[in-house]
Queue: 3 jobs
Job 1
Amino acid sequence: MKRRVLALLGFATGVFAGSVVFRRQFGKRRDRVEVYFDDGAMVSYVDGAPEAATLLDAAREALQAARSA
Amino acid sequence: MDVAQALADLTEISTQIEAAVLFGADGAVEGSTLKNESAAKGLAAAAAQLLDRAGALRGGEAAVTQVEAALGDGAVFVVRDGARRIAAATVSNPTVGLVFYDLKSCLRDSAGSVGGEAADAQPENRAASGTAGTAPEPAKPKRAPRKKDADEA
């Protein structure tokens, strides 16, 4: 009985560790823009949000310009 | 410190910053780490656009001070200090706080050279206002209180 519990616990730990490694390796980070205002507020816009599109376009343009030299 | 020196220090201190450009509110480039002038203008224009668009999102009720855009293959940072701005392109997943700190330091260090001679002239004016013929005393280093005194207090 004790051996079965230990085996089950080991299996569960393995699955959990595997999922963490998988997410770290293959989980795609979404593009995002963080805007800081002078009143102390910070707003984060993630790719896919309607507001993010215009900001990300300008950011990609800036990165492209910096790397074109 | 002049703009070129401030930018040189910036890229020397931060290995994560690939390119940086200092520009004014009108988009005029004051200095850049990029050798290609059109690339510097392009980076400044896109960064100014990013600031303008970010400011428009809240209807202009609060001014945008800084922006970070994290993209798949790199990141873009823009910092504003009054009418002056600095934009930088970095490697992907940079240390955000450190990059913002370095950019603000660069803006501050280069402020004297762009804002006129007044900032640079201040230390000389202060020295000149002292009594003629007497050299200003060097600042004495502050000592920590003796341990015995600190224990008694």
Job 2
Amino acid sequence: MKHQHEYRDPQLAKLQIQAIQQVVAGFERTMTFMEVCGTHTMAIYQQGIRALLPEQIRLISGPGCPVCVTPVGYVDQAVALARRPNTMLATFGDMVRVPGSTSSLLEEQARGATIRIVYSPLDAVALAEKHPETDVVFLGVGFETTAPTVAGAVLTAARKNLANFYVLCAHKTMPGPMAALAGDPELQVDGYLCPAHVSAIIGAKAYQPLVDAHRVPCVVTGFEPLDVLQGVLMLARQVVAGAARVETQYRRVVKPEGNRKALELLQLVFEPCDALWRGIGNLPDSGLCLRPEYARFDASRQLPIVVEQPREHLGCLCGEILKGKVQPEACPLFRTTCTPEDPVGACMVSSEGTCAAAYKYGM
Amino acid sequence: MCLGVPMQVKSIENETALCEIDGVQRQASLMMLDDVKIGDYLLIHAGFAIEKIDEEEAQLTLQALREALDMGLEPE
């Protein structure tokens, strides 16, 4: 894989760790750095990075797993759609096992619902083309990395004049929750490892307002072990120097302005709307909804369903874990009633959820 | 979910590239990128190429890491 080997060089990793130790030597309080990307969560657990860092540095996971931050009410909507006659749901794999209030898509599939796991939103468009008599609903979940691919699918369906392709849209956008958590005195985030591929789309400059408003250092960081260590080093240097600015470690992919064409796709198909985040609540303009011009593809407007009253699971601390306030081991359900085989909360379902990563790799 | 796989472009037809990594081939939409050439490395996410991988920047980052050696740090 391109550069993967080089960015996993253990000798260079040792040097990076020494450099981090030198930077924080003599620094008397703990620095808390939050990542807000499920792929970072996975990488940090999988590579055992926490154990390598000096005790002054604490890494926590925030609301970076799109499946995890999707509220239970959305799963209930998807379940209700799955129960509709003549309807096929198409989704990325993680969503099927997320528990709703009383059911999940996996349970609905066992009861006879038609649910297809797809690799790309374009596969869902192809399904709609292949089954013209069936309503095909794609579950639009994900941040700015994924939302343009769904915009591309909607435009493709429009070009093909498909009357049976729909999106149940719950896309969310990134800097919003980071600003909400930066202002939380309970958390005291000293710096953000900004999400790598969200930033490829929105650009490093997108974090400047967050830095200006909260004086919190932001480093756009890649996913390989050397990327993460260098991102931590860059954040630590800023904290020690009392600085707060946006820096980009992941320069081989992320540009200051982001991806212009992807942003144009987003603007063409979606408009900002308020969005409900599990654990954080409603954040203004932190979601993406289909523009009125594309309302005919909007499952929530076109396909009437009755949805049950959403009910969170008692005792599940997913919401607190997504804010970085509680670590998985502190949840009474973790490893007891909540396991990857039989998950209670979304953070245990998605392979990149904090609880799933902690269960698999520990620490 | 935001996983991106670096793949190399083998051929291009209209707005779709055939990309390869470790012998695995996949089609990727080029709707989000301009000026893609055969041989380029792209980051593929959910069937779309979301960005090119800049070889020069990749080497500069590694070079900066290796320069840590000159700062008096040595691998154990």
Job 3
Amino acid sequence: MGHREKDLFLEVLAFYPCTPPAHYTLSRKPGVPNAEAAQHLLDEALAEQREQNRKLLQQLMLDFARFQVQPTGLRLVLSEVDLEWLLQVLNDVRVGSWIKLGSPEDSDLITHAFDHLTDEKRPVLWAMEMSGYFQMQFLKAVAGG
Amino acid sequence: MAETVTPDLLPAAAPVQHQQDKPESDLEPGFLVVCWNDPVNLMHYVTHVFQQVFGWPRKKAEFHMLQVHEQGKSILARDSLEKAEHYVHQLQKYHLHATLERDE
């Protein structure tokens, strides 16, 4: 990645965590035994994951050795484990940003966002789109493309 | 913008699987893991997550992703309460819209 791209990448990561905890529900319908306790378990598991990912992110942002200087720019070196938590972080930013934009259900998400864009929402739309961009870059790396 | 260089990946350690003794009712299948459509999760991402969580080959993961996309939802697994709950936890860690439902 280029130096500017690295800066954008770190800017996107700085939005984490973005998705509100209340967004995660275990079940849509009644019928799950001990539903309240089960929901509480899920909430705890996700809170623990958020805390862990926050620490991993802090380490990443300080670990300049991860971004190896190459003739064409920078190469980000990641293990497969790193890749998975980064994908989770990026999707948290993407989904959380979508929620902040009003969770538009329109098929053309971007058009809707632009039609209702305010100064406050502009960085949120940016975060949603840029997190999606970096997700696709990482997924290409996984696919070997 | 400079040409994007995709990251190098280092091999990971194999995942560890655990088994626990549980009451028979918790082990009986009867709960569904359902993934619901939304306009924000990318299709490639959803496919990848299905591969990671369930260990599916790409084709099967894509089949279920397309079911979510075209039919509004896909039933990913029918299993015991404990296993189904585990899968939903994993899918929600990836921020997919996945829920646990009783099989009617």
